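The data layer described in this paper is built around a simple, fixed record for each protein. We quote a single record here, exactly as it is kept in our systems:
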Amino acid sequence: MKKLDEYLKVAEAADYLGISQNTLRKWADEGRVTVRVNPANGYRMFREEDLRQFLSEASKPAVPKRAK
């Protein structure tokens, strides 16, 4: 089990991704970014490896749709 200090808080994770805290909260609520919730206080927590994977997926080129 990871220690709590191995997780990023919302502000730190948003800075890591280069987005606003509100955008990160929205994306986490929508399931676009992996988030964990601290059971003691309900705070959102993010692992750096999950954020790195998200950035890797987001940086892949889009596959254009073929015209019918």
Notes: The radius of gyration is 14 Å. Strands lie at 36-37, 44-45.
